[in-house]
């Protein structure tokens, strides 16, 4: 453990074995887990509130849970476990709130092919998660003849009807957040960061980069009140992008669409044409061991579907997986918050087969990097979903005892090798 939040902290530097207050390492670990999960809930609630949606129960829990972690308030290990699971419940409510707000504002996503090439003309690259920022940018840039490209977690924006109707939303460039220094350096237009997943920029493109909303970077111009005129003027002042051919990425398999073809999926499962469904997604990161996810999906048998979401999909979304009776084998459900869509699909399938979600031919193989992924994991545990595999490493904030409790109750596993994990899952 490490705690230095009060004046009495050991040696004036931090308690590392047991708190001076009497808090043990497991309580400290659960408090850390709770705080980390709350950050994810805050992110989704923030975006929902921007669109005019809020949940009083989620807001009240934030206050209750934060107060719980204050010095000398709660030393009960079992109650902290309950709080962590309740955090998962509140995160589910927040994701549902955001999903409904996005669909209400921008329409229900539909499968869409997105070009990865360039169209000639001045251009802006937008990264992050905020769809309202993108909508306002598209409106303002359209009037000035400036094209807009998405990056990272903005890829799913192309699937929303009210966004894809803009003719200047022309394509997608680059991959996940950890590659942005190289990718932004090579993109010749203006760049806009809207939320998390931004990195301190290199000097070579700092003057072309802007932030807005909650994102801020040192030495980078920050846009207020969604007035993107400065970004647009910068794009127009730079050499126009040359025309360049590219490939295509497909996104937009929101639960509304997947449920509309659920009968086809169910028939294919019953006929033995779909043997298993894998959810492989989550956060991306720089560790070489994350190649596991690429190799895993490559080795998934051809009679299996692969659902994905979050920026973890960039490990394999460029591959051609074909289809099963017209159903694409790779279904990109959207941003990390679209874990809500995956949950809705799982619940619907369980209802159709009259079984528990844990009895479905469904396996979750998740990658995590930051706090939002942790809150989603807590949501899955709140729902009682078992046999989840996560990687590439275990969360450092969980003590062996706390991790052991999760493993004992939910059979949470760390990834091993693609071959071994697939063998264990499929038999």
From TrEMBL:
Residues at which [4Fe-4S] cluster binds: 3, 6, 15, 21
Assigned EC number: 1.7.99.1
Gene3D superfamilies in alphabetical order: 1.20.1270.20, 3.40.50.2030
Cofactor: hybrid [4Fe-2O-2S] cluster; [4Fe-4S] cluster
Modified positions (Cysteine persulfide) in chain numbering: 283
Molecular-function GO term, any one: peroxidase activity
Catalytic reaction(s) noted: A + NH4(+) + H2O = hydroxylamine + AH2 + H(+)
Enzyme class: oxidoreductase
Cofactor: binding details: Binds 1 hybrid [4Fe-2O-2S] cluster.
UniProt-listed PANTHER family: HYDROXYLAMINE REDUCTASE
Family from the record: Belongs to the HCP family.
Protein name per UniProt: Hydroxylamine reductase
Provenance organism: Desulfoscipio geothermicus DSM 3669
């Amino acid at each position: 453990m490490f705690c230095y939040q009060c004046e009495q902290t050991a040696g004036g530097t931090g308690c590392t074995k047991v708190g001076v207050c009497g808090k043990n390492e497991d309580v400290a670990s659960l408090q850390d887990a709770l705080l980390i999960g709350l950050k994810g809930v805050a992110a989704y609630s923030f975006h929902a509130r921007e669109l005019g949606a809020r949940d009083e129960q989620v807001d009240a829990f934030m206050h209750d849970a934060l107060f719980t972690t204050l010095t000398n308030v709660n030393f009960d290990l079992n109650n902290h476990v309950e709080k962590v699971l309740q955090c998962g419940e509140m995160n589910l409510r927040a994701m549902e709130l955001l999903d409904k707000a996005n669909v209400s504002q921008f329409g229900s996503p539909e499968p869409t092919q997105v070009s990865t090439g360039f169209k000639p003309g001045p251009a802006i690259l937008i990264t992050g998660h905020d769809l309202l920022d993108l909508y306002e940018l598209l409106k303002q840039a359209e009037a000035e003849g400036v094209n807009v490209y998405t990056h990272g977690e903005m890829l799913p924006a192309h699937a929303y009807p009210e966004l894809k109707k803009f003719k200047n939303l022309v394509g997608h460039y680059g991959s996940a957040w950890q590659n942005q220094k190289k990718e932004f350096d090579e993109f010749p237009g203006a760049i806009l960061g809207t939320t998390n997943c931004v990195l301190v920029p290199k000097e070579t493109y700092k003057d072309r980069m802007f932030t807005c909303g909650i994102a801020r970077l040192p030495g980078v111009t920050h846009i207020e009140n969604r007035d993107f005129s400065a970004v647009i003027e910068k794009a127009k002042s730079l050499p126009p992008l040359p025309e360049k051919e590219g490939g295509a990425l497909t996104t937009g398999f929101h639960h509304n669409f997947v449920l509309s073809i659920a009968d086809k999926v169910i028939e294919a499962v019953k006929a033995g044409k779909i043997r298993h469904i894998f959810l492989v997604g989550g956060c991306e990161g720089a560790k070489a061991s994350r190649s596991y996810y690429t190799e895993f999906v490559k080795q998934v048998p051809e009679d299996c579907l692969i659902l994905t979401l979050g920026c973890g999909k960039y490990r394999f979304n460029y591959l051609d997986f074909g289809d099963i009776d017209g159903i694409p084998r790779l279904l990109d459900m959207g941003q990390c918050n679209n874990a809500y869509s995956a949950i809705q699909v799982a619940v619907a399938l369980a209802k159709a087969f009259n079984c528990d979600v844990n009895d479905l031919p469904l396996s979750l193989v998740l990658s995590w990097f930051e706090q939002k992924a942790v809150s989603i994991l807590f949501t899955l545990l709140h729902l009682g979903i078992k046999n989840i595999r996560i990687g590439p490493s275990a969360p450092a904030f969980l003590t062996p005892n706390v991790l052991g409790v999760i493993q004992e109750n939910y059979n949470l596993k760390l990834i091993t090798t693609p071959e071994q994990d697939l063998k264990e899952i499929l038999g």
